[in-house]
Write a structure and sequence with these properties.
It is a single chain. This protein has one domain (about 5-225): Alpha-Beta Barrel (TIM Barrel), CATH 3.20.20. The protein contains 12 helices and 8 strands. The protein has helices at about 25-35, 55-70, 85-100, 115-130, 140, 150-155, 170-180, 195-200, 215-225, 230-245, 255-260, 280-290; strands at about 5-10, 40-45, 75-80, 100-105, 135, 160-165, 185-190, 205. Strands 1-2-3-4-5-6-7-8 form an 8-stranded parallel β-barrel, surrounded by 6 helices. Strand 4, helix 4 and strand 5 form a beta-alpha-beta unit. Helix 3 (about 85-100) packs parallel to helix 4 (about 115-130) and helix 11 (about 255-260) packs across helix 12 (about 280-290). The radius of gyration is 18 Å and the shape is globular. The chain starts with 6 loop residues before the first strand and ends with a helix.
């Protein structure tokens, strides 16, 4: 299916207190910051939200809070992928019951299934819910790559709404786009490739950097939609140092530090992730200052 959403989605962080609990006051401020600055959809409990270190009770609480807080002002996309198909199906059903507009499901990780296994995984998830599902391809983290012929097969599942591409290989992404274009959308899942993916027909961006700079990331999308590639390139060039700063260490370590610098009270990541190194904090602060970012 096509047209689930166009524009920008922020891969939201989950702010934690030092004692480990979810900081819902801070999370609420983050949601308002995103909506105020034009973000079209919020991806909650995706990789950037650290769900692998959260309990089921915490995930349920975050889902319920998100639906109530957002109140229809932006699309809500919950991350429900797993390396266990049964768990992914159960989580997807639960997210649908709580009011998700759509789901983001990362490929099975660690198990390293075959392409046939990828298809069976998404067929099981999509068959268990009625809402749109976005497949997430990020082989650097999962060890599994959705190859273009597999993407084409997935695209014909009725409620498979799109593929979030973060494989890092633009040649592969172009071939995937060619194959799936008639059936579902492609979204950039790699901030460094936002502009080229939009230029070949990407429907939108699912961004980490937009936790910090939502207005600016949305503007890149808007410029491309208006066919103003000169302005899009100019702004993307300005954003690239910030994007690089968001990945000086594994996501979401840097972006949480950046949100703290803005005053969003992101807290530190949960173990085994650690606080951002001091040298990388300086890089992040310099990027925020140069862009003049403020709440």
């Amino acid at each position: 299916m096509k047209g689930f959403f166009k524009g920008t989605a922020t891969a939201m962080i989950t702010p934690f207190y030092d004692n480990g609990g979810v900081n819902f006051d801070a999370f609420g401020r983050m949601i308002e910051y995103q909506i105020k600055n034009g973000t079209d959809a919020l991806v909650i409990l995706g990789t950037t939200g650290e769900p692998s270190t959260m309990t089921d009770d915490e995930k349920v609480a975050v889902m319920k809070y998100s639906v109530e807080k957002i109140a229809g002002r932006a699309k809500i996309i919950f991350g429900t992928g797993s390396n266990c198909t049964a768990n992914a199906v159960a989580a997807s059903k639960r997210a649908e019951e709580f009011g998700a507009d759509g789901l983001l499901c990362v490929t099975p990780y660690y198990n390293k299934c075959t392409q046939k296994g990828i298809v069976a995984y998404y067929q099981a998830i999509c068959g268990a819910v009625k809402i749109p599902v976005i497949a997430y391809n990020v082989p650097a983290r999962t060890g599994v790559n959705i190859l273009p012929p597999t993407a084409e097969e997935l695209s014909k599942i009725p409620n498979l709404a799109g593929i979030k591409e973060a494989c890092g290989n633009m040649e592969q992404i172009c071939e995937t786009m060619r194959r799936v274009r008639p059936y579902c959308d492609v979204y950039s899942g790699d901030d460094n490739l936002n502009l080229p993916i939009l230029a070949i027909g990407g429907a939108g961006l699912i961004s980490v950097a937009s936790n910090i700079a939502p207005k600016e990331v949305k503007q890149v999308y808007t410029y491309v939609a208006e066919r103003n590639l000169d302005k899009a390139n100019e702004l993307q060039d300005k954003l690239l140092p910030l994007i690089d700063a968001c990945f000086t260490e594994v996501n979401p370590i840097p972006v949480k530090a950046g949100c703290d610098m803005l005053g969003l009270d992101a807290g530190t990541p949960r173990a085994p992730l650690t606080e951002l190194e001091d040298a990388h904090k300086k890089i992040m602060q310099d990027c925020i200052d140069k862009l003049g970012l403020k709440l």
